[in-house]
Amino acid sequence: MRIMVIGAYGHAGKLIMREAVRRGHDVVGIAHRMHKHESTNNIVIKDMMDLTKADISNVDAIVDAVGAWTAGTEAVHYNGLEHITQMIAGTTIHYLKIGGANTLFIDKKHRHTLQELPLYYPDYMQDVCNAHAEGLKILRTYDDVNWTYVTPTFNFDPNGQKTGNYQVEGEEIKVPSSHDPNDGKHDYISYADFSKAVIDIVEQHKFVHQRITLVSGDNPHPTWRY
């Protein structure tokens, strides 16, 4: 398969690319700028907003692993998403957007999200949270795009081990009655296991038109926030 990874120099993007290459796929990474001391193999330096239909015409899947956390950059989580989806509408390309755990529902009626709990997402994170939520809202409107919104669970560990174990769950996360993330259970996954899961989904072309959550178990360091 030919797989494009947008955000190729980010923590998640880098590992997703590595996993895809390890399995023998033809991989191209997109990064908006050069990074010192990083490999340029299979990397195209181009802002995702400048990507054209010609750039994506021969790919089977696009993994959008863009990470934007600073003020003024977070809009890429929805305007970048919409730019890509408009180009691939009506095609067979599978678009996987790596989303934010803030969008997970904390009630059965899906009226409230994790973003509303300040111990999980304090005020300074709300702009980024809103951008992720807007991206998911936009994605749900595209019936003619083979999209999957892939959410890591709350404790997303860049330094965790690759165990090979993970579960695919739905749109809800169970929070402790204290609403304190340190008391949470079944809310952990390492970047390494997450990357394995993403490429599994790409290869199997599963969960189209679904938002899913990837989780591997309890946080091994419950007082740490990743």
Describe the fold and architecture.
It comes from Companilactobacillus heilongjiangensis. Pfam families: NAD_binding_10 (PF13460). Residues 7-202 form the NAD(P)-binding domain. By secondary structure, the chain is of the alpha/beta class. The protein has one domain (2-215): Rossmann fold, CATH 3.40.50. Helices cover 25% and strands 20% of the residues. The chain has five helices and ten strands. Strands 3-2-1-4-5-6-10-8 form an eight-stranded mixed sheet, with helices on both faces. A two-stranded parallel ribbon has the order 7-9. Strand 1, helix 1 (11-22) and strand 2 form a beta-alpha-beta unit. Helix 1 (11-22) crosses helix 5 and helix 3 runs parallel beside helix 4 (126-139). The longest helix is centred in the middle third of the chain and has 14 residues, at 126-139.
Supply database-style keywords.
226 residues; alpha/beta; Rossmann fold; two-stranded parallel ribbon; 5 helices; 10 strands; globular; NAD(P)-bd_dom; NAD(P)-binding domain-containing protein
Please give a quick description of this structure.
The protein has a single domain, classed as Rossmann fold.
Uncertain residue ranges: none
Overall number of structural domains: 1
Name the strands of the widest sheet in spatial order: 3-2-1-4-5-6-10-8
Q: Mean pLDDT across all residues, rounded? A: 93
Shape designation: globular
SSE order, as H and E?
Answer: EHEEHEHEHEEEEHE
Tally of DSSP β-strands: 10
- CATH class annotation: Alpha Beta
The value of Rg in angstroms is 17 Å
CATH topology: Rossmann fold
> How much strand?
15-25%
InterPro entries: NAD(P)-bd_dom, NAD(P)-bd_dom_sf, Polyketide_Oxido-like
Protein name: NAD(P)-binding domain-containing protein
GO molecular function: oxidoreductase activity, acting on the CH-NH group of donors, NAD or NADP as acceptor
Pfam families: NAD_binding_10 (PF13460)
